[in-house]
Amino acid sequence: KRRNYPAGPIPLPFIGNMLPVIKEKPGYEAFRKWTKEFGDVYTFWMGSKPYIVVSSYKRMKETFILDGDTYADKIHQPFDEQFRGGSYGVVDTNGHLWSTHRRFALTTLRDFGFGKDLMQEKILIEVEETFKKFDEKLGVEQEIPGVFYNASANVINQLIFGYRFDKSTIDELAKLKALMEFQETIFTTFKIYVEFFAPALGKLLPGKSLDEQLAEFTVDFYKFFDKQIEDHRSKIDFDSEESLDYAEAYLKEQKKREAEGDYEMFSSKQLSNMCFDLWLAGLSTTHTTLTWITAYVLNNPEVQKKIYKELDEVIGSDRMVVTADKNDLPYMNAVINESQRCANIVPLMNSRCTTKDTVIDGVPVKKGTGVIPQISTVLLDDNVFPDPYSFNPDRFIDENGKLKKVDELVQFSVGKRQCLGEGLARMELFLFISNFFNRYEVTPSSTDPPSLQKTTMFNVTPRKIDAILRRRHT
Ligand code: HEM
């Protein structure tokens, strides 16, 4: 079969090319080595399935960006439909359902950013809440990621369901957090790993199957979403023009469509799956990135000094940093960019699927072939980012001290399936991080700075961070 695909590493029976990926966590090196050996288009076998890997920005532009429609679909994952009860949501669906709901979610989120700027307002409420939490333990060791976690969860929950978790609902969040943590550990067990990449082989190994584990984790999540949706339904004012959260906007659209005789496109099952996708895609990515940025800064005292210098010159007090300040803080933006590049939290991207016969790099490719935009290789491309494993925010600063736009910074991916929450994520990262460092002198609590060691390929999360915070402006 290999003859029909671009050249690549020789696959082994059952496991394909997974061994080198698993061996060197979190999986970047195997892909970088193959790119050097076979070029920026090669074939990688996950179990017995071939995927064409595209691993340079130049080639991604020719394919996923300029010929976007050909790469708009995601590859079908049977386990996904199993736990959702059909083809629902936005992360794993294709065609008209996917494009309609992607557009609707994007428009709804964009509307929250206009007018009275609901999005920034909701994020700044959470920034203030993190301040209250951190201020309780000034001068003594305290844990940082947990506070960022609750804040990111509150932002996404505010935008989807219009409320934040307070004292009366904090147990609800604790349960959801435990579920998220359970989900993150599913893919760290050997059986599930094998089952994911070589289903036939994995199923023979002892232990709970991927389907069983996902069912366990999702059932309580859906209970939470369905309860929120029912609460909304009972209180909603269908005549109000402005929607204050995504669920409200969706229910209004559902009613409108039903009045026109369309009961399918905005179904209630689709709503719970959209909430599931937005909640999950939006929370762990943002929280993980906030934690990585803090970890990189604490490991680089020179960078931290420069952050403080810029904040002192531009902000100069403990007033809230807002999005209007963003252009005046190029170094802060460069630190966020470089942290995202180094954190590189998606070592192996989900595969797209060609929607028609096409040609990649001169090789004919059939409709329905898996093609992967391998962003982790681009983020570590030493032609663009020399010494790619070193943390150096200055690579994003130009000779005039301004922020440099670098196309290869593709942490939110490229093309039709690129991150739907990019605008929200960028705003959260900027507001949380710039306000955190503007308000606090942050020092690692022990003699060593936080570990930068990466864990598995599905879960590139940083280790625990304890730090001592002191107010910078009194
Ligand atoms: C630092 C934070 C984030 C990072 C690094 C990130 C990264 C990504 C990446 C790499 C993809 C895959 C795109 C592809 O398949 O090519 C993606 C997809 C997606 N992200 Fe994000 N994301 C972040 C935050 C968010 C937030 C806050 C939301 C919530 C609104 C979100 C919602 C989604 C959704 C729904 C998709 C699937 C889009 C589709 O298939 O059409 N993400 N994200």
From TrEMBL:
<keyword id="KW-0349">Heme</keyword>
<keyword id="KW-0479">Metal-binding</keyword>
<dbReference type="GO" id="GO:0016712">
    <property type="term" value="F:oxidoreductase activity, acting on paired donors, with incorporation or reduction of molecular oxygen, reduced flavin or flavoprotein as one donor, and incorporation of one atom of oxygen"/>
</dbReference>
<dbReference type="GO" id="GO:0005506">
    <property type="term" value="F:iron ion binding"/>
</dbReference>
<feature type="binding site" description="axial binding residue">
    <location>
        <position position="419"/>
    </location>
    <ligand>
        <name>heme</name>
    </ligand>
</feature>
<keyword id="KW-0732">Signal</keyword>
<dbReference type="InterPro" id="IPR036396">
    <property type="entry name" value="Cyt_P450_sf"/>
</dbReference>
<comment type="similarity">
    <text>Belongs to the cytochrome P450 family.</text>
</comment>
<dbReference type="Pfam" id="PF00067">
    <property type="entry name" value="p450"/>
</dbReference>
<dbReference type="InterPro" id="IPR001128">
    <property type="entry name" value="Cyt_P450"/>
</dbReference>
<dbReference type="InterPro" id="IPR017972">
    <property type="entry name" value="Cyt_P450_CS"/>
</dbReference>
<protein>
    <recommendedName>
        <fullName>CYtochrome P450 family</fullName>
    </recommendedName>
</protein>
<keyword id="KW-0560">Oxidoreductase</keyword>
<dbReference type="GO" id="GO:0005737">
    <property type="term" value="C:cytoplasm"/>
</dbReference>
<dbReference type="InterPro" id="IPR002401">
    <property type="entry name" value="Cyt_P450_E_grp-I"/>
</dbReference>
<keyword id="KW-0503">Monooxygenase</keyword>
<dbReference type="GO" id="GO:0006082">
    <property type="term" value="P:organic acid metabolic process"/>
</dbReference>
<dbReference type="InterPro" id="IPR050182">
    <property type="entry name" value="Cytochrome_P450_fam2"/>
</dbReference>
<dbReference type="GO" id="GO:0020037">
    <property type="term" value="F:heme binding"/>
</dbReference>
<dbReference type="GO" id="GO:0006805">
    <property type="term" value="P:xenobiotic metabolic process"/>
</dbReference>
<keyword id="KW-0408">Iron</keyword>
